[in-house]
Amino acid sequence: MNCVRKQNVFNTIGAAIKFITFWLLVVVQLPIIFLLPRGRASVWYMKIFMKILLILAGIKIEVHGKLVKHRPLLVVSNHISIFEIATFPVAFGGSFIAKKEMENWPLVGWVAKKFGVIFVDRRPSHAMDALKLVKDTVANVKYPMFLFPEGTTTNGAYVKQFKSTLFNFIEGSNVVVQPMAMHYRFRDGGVISDEDLAEHFAYFNNSNQDMGPSCTRERSAFGQVFHIMVLGGFKVEITVMPPPPLAGLNRKQIAETLHEIVSDKYMELKDER
Fold first, then answer.
1. What's the mean pLDDT in 256-266?
2. Which stretches within 58-184 are classed as H helix?
3. DSSP string of 216-249?
4. What is the largest CA-CA distance in the chain?
5. Which of 116-125, 161-170, 260-269 has the lowest mean pLDDT?
């Protein structure tokens, strides 16, 4: 039977050493990140930066399928925790479309900008500006851009409905949209229960959830990284699916189509034994 590794003083000390090591390596890399021109070079370097975090946190990646070679390419996926921000660049390269509030995170916002992340304000009053920023960015980069249409992380029990706002620019464009379903396993491939996923591996706000178990102790982003280091990590399995035909669909239909694809595959995979 698979279960969460028991937390003890030895695991905690080991995690503390790893956590401190990660931040020391971040400081060492800051001059490199500062000197890198924003663009393909800095996006490429993000793979190295994030690989260090994954090694120290004990995160394994397993990918099924491939991204298409067409550019511009927008990749959409479900979102369970902050570790997608590390695993996707390592597995595929590319950068992200993220929520505006992340831009103000100390140090993280600046580093993310250098790594090609674009921050969009999803409030209705800023919808046109956000749409133009996404359209211009996706159309002009030669690497995939990742979007989490749920607009938030979840407890992993389900996939929230996709927000349709940022799919406006897909209508009538040459942007290919490719869906992925991502789920977590124990490092040995064992199934993580919904309860353990919510309590230990997912990173979310209880008030944002529509169903499924809650977390009895919500952590900060850095607290979640440390907690995963204590647990010894986990495996991220990513299933890449073919781009669906979206021609002629409006933004709401596009969001519904993509949500159905990702949600159906996720629910199929997460409890598969």
1. 98
2. 84-92, 108-114, 127-140
3. SS---HHHHHHHHHHHT-EEEEEEE-PPPP-TT-
4. 58
5. 116-125
Residue 37's Cβ-count burial label (10 Å; 0-12, 13-18, 19+) is exposed
What percentage of the chain has pLDDT greater than the value 70? Answer: 97
Q: What are phi and psi of 183, to 5 degrees?
A: -140, 160
Mean pLDDT score, 236-259:
95
Any idea what DSSP says for residue 70? Answer: -
Q: Tokens 């505006």 label which residue? A: 100
For helices 40-57 and 221-231, what crossing angle results, to 10°?
A: 50
pTM score above 0.70: yes
> Which residues are within 8 A (CB) of 60 and not within 5 positions of it... i.e. 6 or more apart?
187, 233, 234, 235, 236
114, 44 Cβ separation under 8 angstroms: no
What φ, ψ does residue 185 adopt, rounded to 5°? Answer: -135, 165
Over the stretch 11-34, which tens digit does the pLDDT of each residue have? 999 999 999 999 999 999 999 999
Checking DSSP bridges between strand 118-120 and strand 95-99, what pairing results, if any? parallel
- Asked whether the beta carbons of 52 and 23 are under 8 A apart, the reply is no
Q: Determine the Cα–Cα distance for residues 198 and 22; give it in Å rounded to an integer.
A: 25
Which of 72, 46, 270, 262 has its CA nearest to residue 149?
262
For residue 99, name the pLDDT band (cuts at 50, 70, 90): confident
Q: Which residue has the tokens 């464009």?
A: 173
Phi-psi region of 193 (alpha: psi -120 to 50; beta: other; left: phi over 0): beta
Mean of pLDDT over the chain: 92
